[in-house]
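Suppose you are handed a protein chain with no further information: no name, no annotation, nothing but its sequence. What can you learn? This example shows the usual starting point.
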Amino acid sequence: MKRKRLTAGEKSLKASLDSATYNGVEVAEATFDNLHAQLLKNAHDHISKIDEPEFFVVWVRAGDPLLHNVRRYKIYSYPHLPSPRPEQAVFLYIKAQDSLTRIWSLPPAKIMAAISEASVVDKKWAKTKRWCDAFFDGKLWELARTEQKFNHLSEYEYLNANREKLIKAGCKEGSPVGAEPFDFSKISTNQVVNSQATVL
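A reasonable first move is to predict its three-dimensional structure. Written in structure tokens, the prediction is:
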């Protein structure tokens, strides 16, 4: 018989009841232990889908709106330079070399602000400071192109540069359709597993 996997809520409850102390460095190492393999797998899955010799593989970490102690990780491939955001790492994948090169990696927003405001940082944080400063100046794409010596455009820049061609080719102008917001009224108190952590 196949064993039932724990849901995110069950894992969150189990973690909230755990009183053990963990070494932050060990947790980080375990999190990123096979990251390179996961990034390469995602790139390989997109080789035939993205018809470009080079494209970007993006790693993003985000919290969960309902489970405060849950962190979600997402890896995806993208034909353009992605929009920068906190807790994101961007890599350039070159098909001919089957290689990944880190373009930037940004820490959580509070750490980004602290690093950017610091006048002097330790040598190991020098790259991160350049990326954070460029992020707050709105110039991270330009910095990436200078550091990596490539001319890749962001999706925004690509669409603006080719606007007339795309309209002539039949693409319609229009405002993007907004995402439907989550309806929190659909959640009733008896559906919440850890009621002690719930504020009514």
